[in-house]
Amino acid sequence: MITMSKNKTNILLYLLLKNASVFFISLFIICLLLALVPDTAIPGDVSYFERVKDYLTIAYLFSYDYSVAGTFLISELILHGSKLTFTLIFLSLLIVLTIALPAGILVASEKNTNFQKLFTVTVSLLSPIPILIWASLLMLLVFVFGNMVPLYIDFEDGDLRTRMFVLLIPVAAIVLGDGILLDFYNKIRDETRKVMNEPWLIAVKARGLPIYNHVLRALLLPIFITLSSKITYLISGIIIVEYIFAWQGLGFMIWRSLETPGAKDYPLILGSVKVLLFTVFLFSFIRDILTYKLNPQLMK
Length: 300
Hints:
The chain is mostly helical. The protein has a single domain (2-299), classed as MetI-like fold, CATH 1.10.3720.10. It is 78% helix and 0% strand. The longest helix has 36 residues, at 74-109. 30% of the residues are buried.
């Protein structure tokens, strides 16, 4: 028993170190790339390696201080941007699961073949369209038919109805684009079919007992693994959406810092990138743990 517990601890430590190493190496590479662009805010001739050293200090020691504008602490800006970015992420995933989960289970149950064909064809046609196209198209449609441009400033200053509308437009672009909805739907449908063919579930069904609570529990792990594998694409799409809708999250702050003429707000860029990287590798770490739980032989 002690040996087994020790092995589990070693495995968890290995997975943690592996993902942490990737995280810090990624930050290091980003600092190398950012240092290729001279910072005009620093007087004098500062060498490339000095810039790398400065950015590594900022990234690893949390030495952020104030933004280039000198008005706000960078930590406050990152906290505010994180709330807005993760609001988009949470709502997008909630809507994706609200659509894909019942649809995937229903199609796998083969209770409505017409619905299966219609839904599968519709999602297969619409979902692979890039988020950039969806965001631009929805922006155009709202402007033409709603006579407004759904930007973040309207979310900040508008009434509750306006705020909800401005929030749901970028969320809709994320839900519909880059195959996210299609991937979740396919995964849920295939896993449901697999679970329904399991002998234990067939026995439960034969006894006349409800099976969908068992199906939902069996789907939790595949859904999370799908989510962790899509989180990088989801964050990339959110950065695009934030820029188009001027949604002042982390992605928007990164774009604004990069396109600002002259001095770049490198500490703000590094802080925003660090939050997004940490999110990706946190999901990756949890996915590795769950994968090991499913198949311990992988770690031998």
